[in-house]
Structures are given as C-alpha cells and as structure tokens.
Amino acid sequence: MIKVGVLYGGRSGEHDVSKCSAASVVSYLDRSKFEVTAIGIDCDGRWYVQDLPEIIEDKAFGKVLALKKSGNWLVNHFQRDGKLYLYNTESGKEVSVDVVFPVVHGTFCEDGTLQGLLELAMVPYAGADVAGSAVGMDKDIAKRLLRDAGVPVVPWVKYGKDEWTGFPERLIEEICSRFQFPIFVKPCSAGSSVGITKVKDKESIAAAMNEAFSWDTALLVEEGINAREIEFSVLGNDNPAVSLPGEIKPKHEFYSYEAKYLDSEGAELIIPADMDSETASDMAQSAVKAYRALNCSGMARIDFFIDILTGKYYLNEINTIPGFTSISMYPKLWERSGLNYTALLEKLIDFAIERRNKKNMLRTEF
Question: How far is it, in rounded angstroms, from Cα 233 to Cα 317?
C-alpha cells in the first residue's frame, strides 16, 4: 500500500484555505490503496505529523483538517530510499511516506521552495516541479512567458516596493496615465485573491498599493476588464488533458478571498460554461499552450477573462496548486468532465510517481 503524506497549512496568507483543502483530500483518498499521513505546517513554518487526520468544524470554512502542534519534528531532506522521512526528537518516533500530496497554497509552499526541499529528498510529489511552481506563482514572469508563447494576457505593469517608497506620487501619475479605471492592484506572488484591491479612482491607489505590498515586495497593476471569468482544469505531465470550461459569476465586487471561501453564496459556479464550442476549444488549446509554456506538470487550474464588449479572451492566471475544497472549481470541473474526486487524486499520485521515475533515470555524476 502506498503511503501518502498530505502536506497542508503553511507559512502564508492562505494557511486556512489549505486546511480546508486538506480536509477534502483526506476524506476522498481511497483507503484501500493509500495509507494516509497528515503533515501540518504551522504559520511559523514548523512541521507536525498528526497522529490521526482529524476533520473539525470551522465557522468560516465549514470543515478543516485540524493541525495539532505536538512534538519536535525534523524533516530529512537527504535522499533515502525514495521516501520522505520525519523524525520526532522528543519521542524518537520516525515516520515515512512514499509520495507527498501538497495542498499548501501561497508563499513558501506553492512557489517552488517546498518543491525544492522535496527534490532534495528525491521523493515524488503531486503538482508542478520547482521551475513550474516558481514561474506559475510569479505573475509578472508568467505573463512575460505567456505573451512570448502567443497567449493573450491582460495589460499590466510591475512595481517594486522601493520604487513605491521612493516615488509614490510619480507612480500614481504614471498609473493614471497608463490605465483607465477601474484597475486591479495585486501582489506579484500570492494566490486566493489575497491582497487584491479593485481601484476605481486616483485617490484609492495609495491604499491599494500599501495593501499589496504588505503581502509581497512586488506588485502588479492591471487593466480592469468588464469580463466573464472562465476556468479550465488541466491534468497530466507530457500529454495534459483539459476539462470542460466552467464560469465563475461573483456576487461580490470581484472574485475576492471572501467570495471564494468565506461566503457560501459569494459566487455562482456554472459547469459547463455557456459558450460557443469554437471559443471553448480555442481557449482549451490556449490552456494547454500555457501549461507547457510555464513548465507545469501534474495539475493546474487556468483562469481566463472574456471581455464582454469585444469577445476577446485573456489568460488571467495559472494556479499550480489549485483549491481542493468541497466547492473548488478544479475537482468540480473534472467531476463534470467524467473524473470523480477519488479517481482524480489517484491520477495525480500516479503522475507524481511517473515524473520521479523519469528523473531517477537521469545521470547525476559525470
């Protein structure tokens, strides 16, 4: 039986979202095929093996996987039999897993740092590798690569925190001359709409910039588009498959963190999206092109905008560790495409092992 370590929590603004995703993953993993070990990472970055995965009620997220801080756990980042080993210095207990299923979102988790640790240990893990994770998380780099690959993206400009600190008035004037309102100000490397502000006038720019910079050292200012929000789920390594399209209809100002997770009626999910087959096919091909251009593997959710006035579509962003909550689009899109949640998890584990087997065939000594 394969031992699966479900890694969740994390040192990021999406810590609670991760606990919610983990509750679903733990619930749906096939226990006749997998032995499940829950490994929680607290907000300080400490790892804790859970004695038993325990799903508890949460007033904001419904059900989450509990994260109990017990023991002093060390993670072995050296290769050892292709497994990940954790050791409790207080009790002397040692735990190993054959494959890691990360449902950790945001910085220090989804941005390649965690994947680098798992690569050092040479343990298979679900989702994109170091390069794909890092590129997918950095919205500026991702947009540049997508643009070069011929995938349309929303016009944007990147600013660093030092630029803002030194020349705030100049940046505000530049933004006003470059874009028409509304605009969106967002951290360069964050997910779940954390730190994003929809700005409708010049006077609101400074507050939005400060909010984004509280989450990251760089931010993006993007042109606001009156658009439909269409999403695709992508699955696979070298030959990725694409789901049916789904549409998000936010009932908030935009598809914010609150609309995604805290308000059970914050958005309407329409699967499949009501759109003509030619546009859907074209966008699906762009999703695969983007997946490959950003060096993704395993899984990704790819989000598009369709301009209501012109009908032109743009790729908004890619999520290399998409939400796995009970209301998340990634598993819902696959379910409507004929792949249920449990089978989806099994495929992701298979793809993780497949990628590791290929890497194990590479030479590491001259």
Answer: 12
> How many other C-beta atoms are found inside a 10 Å radius of the C-beta of residue 103?
29
Instruction: Quickly tell me which residue has 């696979």 as its tokens.
Output: 236
Comparing 140 with 193, the larger pLDDT belongs to: 140
CA distance linking residue 45 with residue 66, whole number of Å: 16
The enclosing H or E element of 78 equals none
Q: Is the peptide bond before 124 cis (omega within 30 degrees of 0)?
A: no
- Inter-axis angle of helices 15-28 and 341-360, nearest 10: 100
> Residue with structure tokens 């209501």?
308
- For 50, phi then psi, to 5°, come to -90, 135
pLDDT at 214: 93
Mean pLDDT of 154-170: 95
* Cis before 331? omega within 30: no
- Domains of the chain, first to last: 2-125 (3.40.50.20), 135-153+226-355 (3.30.470.20), 156-223 (3.30.1490.20)
- What average pLDDT does range 230-247 have in this prediction? 97
Cross-strand partners of 241: 235
The DSSP letter of residue 203 is G
Amino acid 344 reads L
| 220 token code pair | 């993006």
Taking alpha carbons only, the member of 59, 15, 62 closest to residue 191 is: 15
